Amino acid sequence: MTVVVGYMPTAPGHAALDAAILEAERRGTDLVVVQPRPKRRQPPEVAEDIDVERDKLARSGVPYELREPDHDSDPADVILDTARERRAELIVLGIRRRSPVGKIIMASTAQRVLLESPCPVLSVKAVYD
Q: Can you give the residue ranges of the UspA domain (predicted)?
């Protein structure tokens, strides 16, 4: 069994990764980090941020795999396909606040994963100072 986490270098993404590492440790299982490639070039600080997260993963001791699907891939599809393929026991997602209008106009990745997931989903909010 596996824990799958959808990761982006954002505050909710960091919170999701931290929670996923803890869940994988607690469950004694491996972790698959799904990190979609952005459509545009990343600024240097984002690349550094990702390196810090890779170091965190390595230090955790949790066996992990990093999947970086093409930018044309729908993140929800990749997360759901990975969960099915790996028979995940948990998906972890970082969520952010959305306005009521934003919820109506655009369905989020988190919403699709919550509705279509083959396993439980843990949604995590970032702690803001």
A: 2-125
